[in-house]
Amino acid sequence: MRTFLLAILACIYLNTQAQDSYPKIKYIDTYDAVFKGMIGYKTPFTMYLKFYAYARKSNASYAITGWYQTENQVGKTSIAGLYDDDLTVYAFHDSASTQHMLNFETEKTNFWEEMSFYKNLPEYSEKFVFGDSTYNWTDKNDTLNVMLGAHNLDIKDSREFLMFNPSKGFKLDELGDRNWIFDILAHKDNRYILEYAYASKPLYIGMCAAGEESGLLYLEFDELNALTTYQFYNLESCLFDFSSIAEKTANGAIKYITDRGEGKAQSVIIVDTEQVVISRSIN
């Protein structure tokens, strides 16, 4: 019996040690996000949004607050709005209108009517709408298209970090979107090779709806864990119609041969997981 208990304790200890070992990929719940985009194909902007409060009768829809700033703008514009699968963001004329939006002060007879009401508030100075096929900005006089550098509009999210230690990490969606999945293939000193994969079509509609994009990401950091170098190596793509065959080399490295179709050049990627080095050649 004592031997059995010691075996259980040993398993628990080893499992705990594995969970506490670094580096590792860790999901961390976040309640804010930064979006970058362009209004009317010529005005770059940055938008910061954070979770404020849940809507009535829902833990999937919520009010958001924050600011946005165009490239040459002095100061920041305060904004407030609603996440309900899509994003509706307002710049209001006064603080009372802002508080009305943030606290869902007007209650309607049902949830859907209430969401529709807050997505169509009449009194504002500027309005952004991100969702479905609509990405635009308006000040009531003009309406312009918006290009947004993100697929995931959910502010309240769980994001992937490459954790170097319990208190220091690198946010991986700075290089990929928030729907990418990463795993550590190899690391040595401040060099890392990560595997990544993500859905070809974030909305799962049309050709490649069930497809996947995948590859390797090489990262290098300085002594303060600041990113100095990175490089993507694409291995599989439904969107661009290519795939790779992996095989072991004589010295234990992994060789990926990427076939892009008849008449197109093949790329050969050699991954040395011991030295954490990647080389690529075109045949």
H and E order: HEEEEEEHHEEEEEEEEEEEEE
> What count of helical segments does DSSP give?
3
Q: Uncertain segments of ≥5 residues (pLDDT<50)?
A: 1-6
Distance between the termini: 63 Å
**Number of E-type strands:** 19
The largest sheet, given as strand count, sense and whether it forms a barrel, is: 8 strands, antiparallel, barrel
Helix content: 10-25%
Oligomeric form of this entry?
single chain
Keywords: Signal
Signal peptide: 1-18
SSE topology sketch:
Elements: H1 2-20, E1 24-30, E2 32-39, E3 43-54, E4 62-70, E5 77-84, E6 86-91, H2 95-102, H3 111-119, E7 126-131, E8 134-138, E9 143-148, E10 157-165, E11 168-171, E12 181-188, E13 191-199, E14 212-221, E15 227-237, E16 243-248, E17 254-259, E18 267-272, E19 277-282
Antiparallel strand pairs: 1-10, 2-3, 2-9, 3-4, 4-5, 5-6, 6-7, 7-8, 8-9, 10-11, 12-13, 13-14, 14-15, 16-17, 17-18, 18-19
Describe this structure in words.
By secondary structure, the chain is mainly β. It folds into two domains: 29-148, no CATH class; 159-282, no CATH class. Helix content is 13%, strand content 50%. The protein has helices at residues 2-20, 95-102, 111-119; strands spanning 24-30, 32-39, 43-54, 62-70, 77-84, 86-91, 126-131, 134-138, 143-148, 157-165, 168-171, 181-188, 191-199, 212-221, 227-237, 243-248, 254-259, 267-272, 277-282. The protein has an eight-stranded antiparallel barrel with strand order 2-3-4-5-6-7-8-9. A four-stranded antiparallel beta sheet has the order 12-13-14-15, with no helix packed on it. Strands 16-17-18-19 form a four-stranded antiparallel beta sheet, with no helix packed on it. A hairpin with a 7-residue loop joins strand 3 and strand 4 (62-70).
